[in-house]
Design goal:
Elements lengths: L1 H6 L2 H14 L4 E5 L2 H9 L2 H4 L4 E5 L4 H4 L2 H11 L4 E5 L13 H6 L4 E3 L3 H10 L4 E8 L4 H14 L4 E7 L2 H10 L7 E5 H7 L5 H7 L3 E4 L3 H17 L4 E3 L11 H10 E8 L3 E10 L8 H4 L15 H5 L31 H7 L10
Parallel strand pairs: 1-2, 1-7, 3-4, 3-5, 5-6, 7-8, 8-9
Antiparallel strand pairs: 10-11
Helix pairs in contact: 2-13, 3-17, 8-9, 9-14
């Protein structure tokens, strides 16, 4: 029980909060770029425990939230075909497309299945040779190795009725886009622990150096996040801008070389559209030419015309740290988990869902 005691210790958390308060001599704005970290911060009230000088804003760390509406509509179109089986993780089923979602499509008779691994989708393809099984491959670098391994397995087993609808996004280009945007207020980042477990933190060092912004790779428990915030505030107060690793029990500078190698073999960088943000250069992954036969977007091309997102939803501003969920006029009113206007209210990692689950409805901040 040492791990539980250490990382859920309320007294230790209070001491860390006090150290942050003592360290912060002027206002600082910090962004976490992982949805799992967002939920820990909000669920445990860490953002409310901090001094007024330290303001937390939430970044585009929820891959479900930044998946473009056009890609979701494409998945829904593929799912509606009689010759396909669409497989996905469960958090994608309720993400609204322009007219419906995958859950409703499944309710009308389409074969949409929730799986726990893309390798499960390969097995489903093996058992259904008369239909194409498409796995909706959404995620940051964390999920890319498993998707690459699914393509490897399908290749080795000769399973040619398997495909990926790829919507992978990469963290570093998003951080650069946020820092270079007009009116940016982010001065330091809590780095994504799970992503760095795979990729390491070497690629964040040029960002810290060129943009003059400290980055602390941080875990997901309350004490992890408080330690990460303290490390960031210390750097900011001292005028340093380095990459530090709080998550030492899981992350190494080089990450996981085997996982990185399989991702590099199967995928290559590409320009990618981010919902609420726009297209960012080299911010996504696509299948390399040798594996392009597994690309569902090429097997099932579409000419869908996608309407704009709801004008009431300010998800794009939330994802870029320009607004907090409870600053949205629709939050908790027109937009709820039961009737979401945008993906951040649907996803298990979305900032809006985190605020709603924590009872932040009716506590909107002024300005």
């Amino acid at each position: 029980m040492k791990y539980v005691d250490e990382y859920h210790d309320a007294e230790l958390a209070r001491r860390l909060a006090k150290r942050i308060t003592d360290a912060a001599s002027r206002p600082w704005t910090i962004m976490e770029v992982c949805g799992g970290q967002t939920h820990t911060l909000v669920r445990h009230g860490i953002d409310q425990l901090l001094p007024d000088e330290v303001r937390l804003v939430h970044g585009p760390g929820c891959p479900v939230c930044v998946t473009p509406l056009s890609v979701i509509d494409h998945a829904i179109e593929i799912a509606g075909r009689p010759d396909t089986i669409l497989c996905s993780f469960g958090d994608m089923l309720r993400v609204p497309g322009s007219a419906t979602d995958l859950q409703q499509v499944r309710a009308t008779g389409s074969d949409v299945r929730v799986v726990y691994s893309p390798l499960d989708a390969v097995d489903i393809a093996t058992g259904n040779p008369d239909r194409t099984v498409v796995f909706f491959a959404v995620g940051f670098e964390t999920t890319a190795p498993a998707n690459a391994m699914a393509v490897h397995r399908a290749t080795a087993q000769g399973v040619d009725n398997f495909a990926l609808l790829v919507a992978h996004v990469l963290v570093p280009p998003a951080m650069l886009a946020i820092l270079s945007a007009p009116g940016n207020r982010v001065q330091g980042f809590l780095g994504p622990g799970h992503v760095c477990t795979v990729m390491g933190w070497g690629e964040y060092e040029p960002i810290a150096a060129s943009c003059g912004v400290p980055i602390v790779i941080t875990g997901f428990e309350p004490v992890d996040l408080l330690e990460g915030i303290l490390m960031l505030v210390t750097q900011l107060e001292e005028g340093r801008h380095e990459v530090e690793n709080q998550y030492v029990r899981s992350v190494r500078r080089e990450g996981n070389p085997a996982a990185r190698a399989v991702v590099a073999e199967v995928f290559e960088p590409c320009d990618q559209a981010w919902r609420g943000i726009g297209t960012l250069p080299s911010s996504g992954l696509r299948l390399r030419e040798a594996y392009r036969g597994f690309d569902a977007a090429l097997r099932f091309p579409t000419d869908l015309q996608v309407p704009d997102d709801s004008r009431l939803c300010i998800a794009g501003q939330v994802l870029q740290g320009r607004a907090l969920p409870d600053e949205c006029a629709a939050f908790g009113l027109e937009c709820t988990p039961e009737h979401p206007l945008g993906a951040p209210m649907v996803s298990s990692e979305g900032a809006c869902a985190a605020y709603h689950a924590a009872g932040r409805v009716g506590t909107r901040r002024p300005g």
